[in-house]
Amino acid sequence: MNLRNILLVASYEYRTHFRRKGFLFASFGLPLLGALILWGVRALNGQVDLGAVLLGESDKPLAVLDQAHLFTSLPEPFVAVSDLESGRQGVLEERYLGLLVIPPDYPQEKATLYTLSGQAAIEQALRMSRNLLAYAELQEHYTFEQVQRLLEDTPVRMVVLSETGAAQGAGARLMVGLTFSILFYITLFSTAGYLLSSVTQEKESRIIEILLSSVTALELLWGKVLGLGALGLTQVAIWLTSARLLARQATALWGFAEQIAQALRHPDPQLVLALVLVMPLSYLTYGLLMAGLGSLGNNLRESQQFSAAVTMIAAIPYMLNFFITLNPNSALARALSYFPLTAPTALILRLGVGTIPWWDFALAVGLTALGALFSLWVGVRLFRVGVLMYGPKPSWREVWRIIRNPA
Known about the structure:
Blueprint: H1 3-18, H2 21-44, H3 50-55, E1 62-66, E2 78-80, H4 84-92, E3 98-102, E4 112-115, H5 119-138, H6 144-152, E5 159-162, E6 165-169, H7 170-204, H8 207-211, H9 217-253, H10 256-265, H11 269-294, H12 300-314, H13 316-319, H14 321-326, H15 331-338, H16 343-353, H17 358-386, H18 396-404
Parallel strand pairs: 1-2, 1-3
Antiparallel strand pairs: 3-4, 5-6
Helix pairs in contact: 1-9, 2-9, 5-6, 7-9, 7-10, 7-11, 7-12, 7-16, 9-10, 11-12, 11-16, 11-17, 15-16, 17-18
């Protein structure tokens, strides 16, 4: 292979796709949108109840029909009603957040809560009802405010431990891991999509035949993969730089943003290694496969049909994220992080929940590297044949035959 030819192809791919409107919008538009949102929140802060604007008003009183006579008087923000019909009518007219009916033989019979539809109102009314019923049991010893504080403001701060000591708060760590996995997923498939369309367009217009008269198929493949990989790194660098600049503004508005900023300033070593090692290897795995499979189609639609299966496999960890969050070291979570096509997202989602054993981490990285080598073997064989293959779209059986016998 001629390194100069590879760099020429890589430079051309980088410059061509950097000027695309889609890339510019994704790279600079998202940070700009974030800045506009922060500017709007800061401008409205203290002047408008943003929670009410976004979720609806939730500071209305909760009506209570106390048939068990648990209270001589109700604390704020509760209002006593004399009968069921008037209470239900008040809820329908949106004067009350909900109606809590305490039956005469409570607690043998459960209380009933009437609310309007809407998850925010239901959650708020349910929380207020639980606080009031707990206060009914403790009112001889505590005020309603004390009971509410004990139930809602649990004096416990969660900290996830690592082998190097105490790490970040659990919520901030999970947010950082989820954010990085989503960023990688978006970057991976936007650049892989550019790679797929680049190969397909050049093949459809027959330009690729002219290119192959000056460079070999392998040089063309590596040039495209490296050039668009550099494009993906540029996009990530823009996003991370913008996030660092916007984090200062977000910290001033929301307290939880400081925890996330702290997690970014002192990241977990395993998370850093995953980003440095697993992400480039995973890009090679997907990029080479997408280029090889994309070369088999006669147009973009046919090429996307081949690549759709690969794209769906990468999204499996998000579909099973609930199980990964429950236990990051379960058999399912480990299996997903060992399989090269699901390893990048699964591994970072696991690290967002907590640290994993170092042998486990090393095995995941090693298998991802083997997956990249396998994709290199498959992608090169498919690309060499596919770029000059026209006619009916090959079946998956024919694709396997090309992989086994590319000549």
